[in-house]
């Protein structure tokens, strides 16, 4: 492939699944594919991820679109940027990025256009405006993009069903690094000491922002009987606004002896360190696409329980650890089954999880598949 410039257009660049996948893709392509250059446009602000990319030498700009109506006109700044840079490919991310970026790319450039879908079933917890934009994207999917990428097979099927072009849609699973765990025990002990959790306790951990679709109430319902029956079990909830579980009636009515073993730590930069401290990781969502956080926990060698959502069944093959979503009793039974195993048995499951990610879902594999896609749309 001749030298190719790709402009990525995304709604924002604060940490999230899509944003971190974009960052990883650019870093890997920068190392491995010298025939491809990348720049990024955020429709809103630069964000944490944008600044990190700038520090790595990538060109990142923001248009400054905010929630007020007048600032929306900032999207028209895309026109001179696209015209002056004359990209070969415009790669857009998530519904709003796909719709706005795709429309401007089609009208004001000759670039090939790739849409990137990062959700599965937003009818559960998605905003009305996002549902409208998704519908518009479905209607335009035969006209605007040259290719449409989903991160999950389940996502592909859902979007085909709602009208996305079947001829253009494909799947590129997310890729993950296997973390170096030389200091795993030291990091685990530090986290546990900070939270006042004994090394002999069993930690059940979750990493998810507090949102309806993540179903924290269902998780609390599932874990409560286990906390009541086993004083060695502790829960650690990592993620933005997880402290809000303390506002739930089902939390306020718990005994203090149970409450003190539910630790809400909010959003954390060192999520991996927390994962090293988990004996069991639990994904308790109502819906997912490709569950990044589950794969990240597996890459850390943690034994995992996950609701059977999105592509979680591609990651976890043992159905006894794949309860139905929105079924607290099933989730409780799966968690109890995992907790009841010996430490050695859980560690064996964790090693199998780590190998699954290494052999089937590596970052290198993801980067190669995107490069092949770029070749394909350029040919």
UniProtKB/TrEMBL annotation:
Question: Any idea which GO molecular function terms this record carries?
Answer: glycosyltransferase activity
| Name by which UniProt lists this protein | Glycosyl transferase
Output the InterPro entries linked to this UniProt entry.
Glyco_trans_4-like_N
Source organism per UniProt:
Aliidiomarina soli
Q: Which Pfam families does the record cross-reference, listed alphabetically? A: Glyco_trans_1_4, Glyco_transf_4
The UniProt record lists the Glycosyltransferase subfamily 4-like N-terminal domain at 63-176
Q: Which keywords does this Swiss-Prot/TrEMBL entry list?
A: Transferase
């Amino acid at each position: 492939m001749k030298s190719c410039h790709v402009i990525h257009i995304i709604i924002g660049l604060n940490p999230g699944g899509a944003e971190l996948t974009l960052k990883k893709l650019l870093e890997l392509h920068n190392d491995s594919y010298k025939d491809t250059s990348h720049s990024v446009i955020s429709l809103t602000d630069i964000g944490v991820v944008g600044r990190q990319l700038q520090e790595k030498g990538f060109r990142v700009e923001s248009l400054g679109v905010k929630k007020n109506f007048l600032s929306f006109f900032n999207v028209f700044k895309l026109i001179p940027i696209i015209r002056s840079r004359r990209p070969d490919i415009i790669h857009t991310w998530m519904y709003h990025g796909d719709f706005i970026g795709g429309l401007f790319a089609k009208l004001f450039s000759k670039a090939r256009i790739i849409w990137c879908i990062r959700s599965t079933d937003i009818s559960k917890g998605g905003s009305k405006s996002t549902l409208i934009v998704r519908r518009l994207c479905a209607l335009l999917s035969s006209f605007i993009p040259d290719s449409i990428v989903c991160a999950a097979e389940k996502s592909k099927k859902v979007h085909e069903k709602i009208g996305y072009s079947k001829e253009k849609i494909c799947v590129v699973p997310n890729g993950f690094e296997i973390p170096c765990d030389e200091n795993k025990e030291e990091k685990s002990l530090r986290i546990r000491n900070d939270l006042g959790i004994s090394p002999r306790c069993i930690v059940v951990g979750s990493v998810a922002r507090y949102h309806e679709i993540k179903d924290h109430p269902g998780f609390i319902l599932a874990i409560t009987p286990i906390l009541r029956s086993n004083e060695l079990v502790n829960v650690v909830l990592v993620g933005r606004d997880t402290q809000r579980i303390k506002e739930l009636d089902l939390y306020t009515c718990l005994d203090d002896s149970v409450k003190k073993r539910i630790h809400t730590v909010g959003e954390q930069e060192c999520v991996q360190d927390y994962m090293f401290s988990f004996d069991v990781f639990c994904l308790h969502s109502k819906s997912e696409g490709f569950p990044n956080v589950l794969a990240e926990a597996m890459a850390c060698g943690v034994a995992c329980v996950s609701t059977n959502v999105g592509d979680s069944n591609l990651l976890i093959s043992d159905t006894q650890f794949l309860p139905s979503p929105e079924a607290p009793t099933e989730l409780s039974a799966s968690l109890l089954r995992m907790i009841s195993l010996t430490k050695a048995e859980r560690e064996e499951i964790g090693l199998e999880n780590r190998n699954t990610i290494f052999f089937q879902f590596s970052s290198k594999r993801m980067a190669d598949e995107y490069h092949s896609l770029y070749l394909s749309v350029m040919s």
